[in-house]
Design goal:
six-stranded mixed beta sheet, Elongation Factor Tu (Ef-tu), domain 3, alpha+beta, six-stranded antiparallel barrel, 21 strands, about 30% strand, 8 helices, Alpha-Beta Plaits, Gyrase A, domain 2
Length: about 375
């Protein structure tokens, strides 16, 4: 359970277009993410998790702000910002495309949507990546316009999500491929609908293009989902860990590079185009990473408290890494965790000790993920 205190709302922190709907349907806790209020709990983490698995859920993820890069050099700048080879991405396709610094560390880990040949959206994790992109564009003199458009994502998650999306938007949803999207105008509401989302479950992401229509869009979906066991939810830490999904600044940050956290598949060192961090990543590729992200399982009763800090990981009393996220999975009936360990200890089946503030916890390392995508 999250430990929360009262949140005082003010104009200094922005509200999403779905804010009033989240209040109406029972949000109990918020965090601040990208300078916006982000719902974190309705009935509780496990209860929200169980509700999703038996129906369909709406997630206010309007905090995933977009960086729009548009203009003659849009493709060139977008390529310079990420180690993915975006020339393999076609119009109407999305692609996980992290931003790295010049040493290969993560600045942010957005998903990129190719809206047009000269227009790209980067759907951000928490962080001021808009300023990073604008600074790089100015410093390297790319001919582009970069700004935050009026675009606010809403995710539709769970086993009944396709049925709800077809019911509202039509049978074409059946043909929407994974990480593909379509521009739609529904009842006067402009949006982009993508087959993707922040879990390994069946899910969709609706990118609303009119802030004033947020509650209207929410209500259209909510009413259509009455016979589909619809509920309100949030990005869920249990779903995230089960699926091996990373959360920027929680699991990884600027001190980590793709080779350490299982994202080497998205680094294309052979492409002709240059990108930020290319030479550093080439060196890491040849020398090998010094640490590695691993899963861990903790035997015993369910652990219901979340770690507020990263806890040290020990072997024979010596620190060899950190435990960054911990949760009990009802589906697996296990306590599961993410650890980042020095490379010589990053092997599956190894016994480690996690040093919590209260006691030392014995765990066994495992490979990720626990669950594959639905």
């Amino acid at each position: 359970m999250y430990k929360t205190s009262k949140v005082v709302f003010s104009p200094r922190v922005r509200k999403s277009p779905y804010f009033n709907s989240t209040i109406k349907y029972g949000v109990q806790a918020f965090s601040v993410y990208n300078h916006m209020y982000m719902p974190t709990s309705y009935e509780g983490t496990i209860e929200d998790y169980n509700n999703l698995l038996k129906g369909v859920q709406l997630w206010d993820v309007g905090v995933e702000r977009q960086v729009q890069i548009k203009g003659p050099d849009a493709e060139a700048l977008s390529q310079f910002l990420t180690p993915r080879n975006i020339k393999k991405c076609s119009k109407g396709q999305a692609m996980y495309a992290p931003f790295l610094d010049f040493k290969g560390g993560f600045i942010n880990d957005p998903v990129m949507l190719k809206i047009d040949e000269d227009c790209y959206w980067f759907s951000l994790a928490d962080g001021d990546a808009l300023l990073w992109a604008q600074g790089i564009a100015a410093g390297y003199k790319f001919d582009v316009d970069i700004h935050e458009p009026d675009v606010s994502p809403l995710q539709v998650q769970g086993p009944n999500s396709k049925e709800l999306m077809i019911k509202v938007f039509g049978n074409w949803v059946n043909d929407l491929g994974f990480y593909r999207f379509k521009e739609v105008n529904h009842e006067g509401i402009s949006m982009v609908i993508a087959r993707m989302g922040y879990s390994r479950e069946l899910c969709y992401e609706i990118f609303l293009q009119d802030h004033s229509k947020g509650d209207e869009l929410w209500e259209i979906l909510w009413q259509a989902g009455q016979d589909l066991n619809i509920s309100a939810g949030t990005p869920n830490i249990i779903l995230r860990l089960e699926g091996g999904i990373l959360s920027y600044l929680a699991d990884i940050d600027r001190t980590n590079n793709p080779y350490e956290v299982g994202l080497d598949w998205m680094v294309d060192l052979d492409q002709e185009d240059d990108f930020i961090g290319k030479e550093s990543l080439r060196e890491i590729y040849h020398s090998g990473p010094t640490k590695k992200l691993m899963g861990a399982e903790i035997p015993g009763d369910p652990i219901t408290a979340f770690n507020e800090e990263r806890w040290p990981v020990l072997i024979d009393g010596k620190k060899i890494g950190s435990m960054n996220a911990l949760v009990y999975s009802p589906r697996l009936d296990k306590n599961i965790a993410y650890t980042i360990l020095s490379i010589e200890h990053a092997k599956s089946g190894k016994e480690i000790t996690i040093s919590s503030p209260e006691k030392e916890i014995v765990a066994i390392t495992v490979d990720l993920p626990w669950l594959e995508r639905t």
